[in-house]
Amino acid sequence: MLDRMRPAHLALAALVTALWGVNFVIIDLGLDHFPPLLFSALRFLVAALPAVFFVGRPKVAWKWIVGVGLALGVAKFGLLFTGMSMGAPAGLSSLILQVQAVFTAVFAFLALGERPGRVKLTGMAVALAGIGVAAIDEGASSSLTGFLLVIAAAVAWGVSNVLTRKAAPPDALNFMVWVSTVPVLPLLALSLLVEGPERDLAALRDLDPVGVGVIVFIAWVATVFGFGAWGWLLRRYPASSVAPFSLLVPVFGMSSAALFLGEGVSPLRWCAAALLVGGVALTSLTPKRDTTPEKPLAPEPVAP
């Protein structure tokens, strides 16, 4: 229960979700310096090196590391960064990505035989209604294509979550560092093919302290520190005590985007946020008696 967590650990959980929320603003800033696929490749390169030399050997089979690396690193982040580069706002992206909980539940049913109960099904319907409201708002204001790419990123995240559940890594930091080694070369190849070597070389030639700081924050602070701290909390406390903090990510994401990027929040977007957060809460945090899981499962990672 939350009241059994020490105040310092409560603060740590809140700090991690705040960093993950602010990370969407940092991504938006980074997209001014790098093409999206190159940006994603650099993020994973710096997250993997030099950490891979200090975390020890992988603690799960390579098939899971490669599978999650492709689904999470190449598909999810490639789509997310591309969607944001095409106009999906940072704050809205932090919110829309949370629908991954719905896709995770669907894929867990198809692949793991986890049948959602009535409360979870209700939560999924509420969250999808929130997506519909957000689509109406986004279609009237900016790029619907970017919005759809962020939804596709949430689908890919759902796939990676199910693969992570099957892998059941005993050490979240070790797993994330090794997973980070997988997407680098595929993303670089896609960047050269789609974005072109001239654009990539120009971004690297023009690299400045802001660009370096963006990569370091996303790779070391949001990824290495964030996953390390989150995994440490999950090992120390019940998942039911830690998981609710993940609902703060879009709160920090939308508020920081409004503060630092001047993104407005329309009444429709507030409505979408309420529906999505409420639906994800019902989908992710339902009591065990409402579901029939194949085995006890930790909550999915929530970092952007």
Topology, number of strands: 2
| Low-confidence sequence ranges | 291-299
Oligomer state equals single chain
N-end to C-end Cα span: 26 Å
Shape: globular
What share of residues is helical?
Answer: over 70%
Number of helices: 14
Cα-atom radius of gyration? 18 Å
Strand order in space, largest sheet:
1-2
H-E order: HHHHHEHHHHHHHHHE
Strand content: under 5%
User: What composes the largest sheet?
Assistant: 2 strands, antiparallel
What would the average pLDDT be, to the nearest integer?
87
Structural class: mainly alpha
Entry summary:
The protein contains 14 helices and 2 strands; from the N terminus they run αααααβαααααααααβ. By secondary structure, the protein is mainly α. α1 (7-30) packs across α4 (90-96), α2 (36-48) crosses α8 (172-181) and α9 packs across α10 (197-205).
Key terms:
single chain; 304 residues; mainly alpha; two-stranded antiparallel ribbon; EamA family transporter; EmrE-like; AA-Vitamin_Transporters; transmembrane helix; EamA_dom
Mind explaining what this structure looks like?
The chain is mainly α. 73% of the residues lie in helices and 1% in strands. It has 14 helices and two strands; from the N terminus they run H-H-H-H-H-E-H-H-H-H-H-H-H-H-H-E. A two-stranded antiparallel sheet has the order 1-2. Helix 2 crosses helix 11. The chain is globular. Residues 291-299 have low confidence and may be disordered. InterPro entries: AA-Vitamin_Transporters, EamA_dom, EmrE-like. This is EamA family transporter. Residues 11-133, 145-284 form the EamA domain.
